[in-house]
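Our preliminary data section would be incomplete without showing what the modeling component actually yields. Below, a chain of 146 amino acids is followed by its predicted structure, encoded as tokens that our downstream tools consume directly.
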Amino acid sequence: MNDPVVALAVATFLEADPTLAGVAIYAHFDRVVEGVVEPQKPGEEIVLPAILIDSKSEPLAGSPTIARSTLQIVVESQLDDAPASEHNARATAARDRMANTPELLTAFNLRGLKLLGRPAATQSDPEVEQHAVRAVFTYVLGYREA
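Predicted structure:
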């Protein structure tokens, strides 16, 4: 299935939100800058604050063109560099952006995919480590390859 394309469509879509400016966005651990993937080099660390996007798809009813994807979006921030309120604002901006179905449809269309319906979302409790905080959002969405 088209997991890298799904992740890139969502990364480009989130990158277009001005409230997320300055946040590094990664699709399958490769950095996305202005809609272009910059492969991560061996040993290179992820820059925080960051949004990490991962997608795992499976065909629906054995179809070669229709799939269901479980999409995970992780918003991670370093607490040493910014207060928790900034992290919360970034997490809220990402969640709110994903609720903008018309623009999300366009982002998928630009990548040759047709989003089927509105993504269903769940959110886990924030994970707080000694110096970092992370918000995890999981979406289930259907798509068809054009």
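The helical segments are 3-15, 84-98, 101-110. The two ends are 12 Å apart (CA to CA). Preliminary results of this kind motivate Aim 1 of the renewal.
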